[in-house]
Specification:
15 strands, D-Maltodextrin-Binding Protein, domain 2, eight-stranded mixed beta sheet, 28% strand, alpha+beta
Length: 270
Amino acid sequence: MPASALINVMVSAARKAGRGLARDFGEVEQLQVSVKGPANFVTAADHRAEETIFRELSKARPGYGFLMEERGEIPGADASHRWIVDPLDGTTNFLHGIPLFAISIGLERDGDLVAGVIYNPAADELFMAEKGKGCFLMGRGPHDRRLRVAVRKSLSDAVVATGIPHRGRPNQPEFMREIRNTMKEVAGIRRTGSAAIDLAWTAAARFDAYWEHDIKPWDMAAGILMVREAGGTVTDAEGGTAMFETGGLIASNGAIHKALLQTLKDSRLG
């Protein structure tokens, strides 16, 4: 994909922040760690990455607003555009030396997701999507690989990712019902610890589907667009479009979406 000026801006910011995260990841024992909530760590690396992204995007597109994990909502003079940023999705992995974490940058235009970048600096994998132009894995050479969701049509053949509510998170009994019911129907269930990676990998056909509850817009914004641009389907837990409002999300290749949605709904009914 010949990258647009917009995507180039986003890729540049992600890679610049990623270089800092990669350095910090190599010295994870020395990181300053503070506790933001139960099992929810914020590191010095997280704040540095967010500052880098904020600075780079503000310089490239003055006036755009922001919604960021650490800084929250920052209105811009341009009310039509809003960056949605998670500078380090997978903080617990990062702190434990597990190389599954990502920078996620999404862009809304008048409330519509129009561009997204997800970058895992530990693996040097960069996923990008622009509305109407497809989803791509940036190549290390001159060529990018266009991504398509998996073609499996049966839930029984599917490998599905999810997020497990850890200590301090609500709805653990409800999740246990979901996981028990889903385990009976699928070929495998995986947990990476990063919603952004789960969504990027669903777009890349590594996973057939992904679901999670109680996640934030910055966890999912870029990934929602990627799955859609790779030909997949994304809904909230009820099959609607209120992912940001409800915090619930189901993403799939489309072919198994109805069956997975019904399995999860049946779990909530007991």
